[in-house]
Amino acid sequence: MPFPIEQKLVIGVASSALFDLAESHQVYLERGAEEYRDYQERHLDTILGKGVAFPFIRRFLNINKCFPRQSPVEVVLFSRNSPETGLRVMRSIAHYGLDISRAAFMNGKSPYPYLPAFNASLFLSANEEDVKRAIAVDYPAGLVLPSKIADEDDDLELRVAFDFDGVLADDESETVFKRNNDLDEFHAHETLHVARPHGPGPLAAMFRQLAILQRLEERAQRRDPGYRRIVRIAIITARNAPSHERVVTTLKSWGVSADETFFLGGMDKSRVLAVFKPHIFFDDQMAHLRASPGGTIPMVHVPFGIANHRPAGARDETVGPPPAPARAA
User: Fold this and answer.
1) For residue 210, what are the contacts with CB-CB under 8 A and spacing of at least 6?
2) Could you say which of 79, 87, 235, 305 has the lowest number of CB atoms within 10 Å?
3) Please, which pLDDT band fits residue 296 given cuts at 50, 70 and 90?
């Protein structure tokens, strides 16, 4: 029987996001593809360290263990490796017990054109070029930023946090604000259009599908009051009253809601992130991604919309060192 991938919440993850490939990537940069291939073959049984997206992916896959009949989620590996150089990645996946069996190996090319074929609602990569090219053709993607890896085995929850504008919703209102950097103009626009839902942003489909998982957990809790919910979703936005109402209007029109929603009105988001401790946080603005509490929260940049348009010659804001050249994986 064909595998019903169109019925799953699918996340595509690059090996550069799932594992720490810094050492092998350096070999690729300094010695070229041939030496890189030899290096990976010599280290075939050396297990790769965990990457920034690992704690999120591990917990995401645990959802299927809670709902084995539905098995509602799927993770697909997308790699610039060849199948031969990708063997080390697949063996590392098996070592950690990750239920990832589907993969696309592209032999040096970007994998993003195949995201729709796998019904992916998100593509996570440490390759900035791949992410930007995916976003440019309206595919959902995020760039994982360097951070320390904190993966506590006794922490069973999956905590996911989203910015609103430019991530869940389109950048219509952000564009209004950026026109004159006028907060009063922004609030007036949102008040005028309070009854009109926003158009979807890059990760709206993923958020809606996470809401389906919320409902699965709610039903499980009604059947078994002792069931402990594992999916916890937060929206952390710089909006505040009166522009908060249009967020509510939009989510209601989509039939979804977050477990926790924070309207911070320009407060530093790290103050809430330090308490919520998400396993992944999505934001379209680098300025909001700088202040990771202790550098341990996995931050993902969604390079979408007006907030990421730069004048010719302008330098992008970055977190940590400048982005590395295109990765081998």
Assistant:
1) 9, 160, 231, 233
2) 87
3) confident
Of the candidates 95, 25, 15, the one whose C-alpha atom is nearest the C-alpha of residue 324 is: 25
**pTM for this one?**
0.91
Residues above pLDDT 90, as percent of the chain: 80
What residues are labeled active site?
163
Per-residue pLDDT at 126: 95
Q: What is the mean pLDDT of residues 217-244?
A: 95
Cβ-contact 273, 297 below 8 angstroms: yes
- Whole-number mean pLDDT of the chain? 91
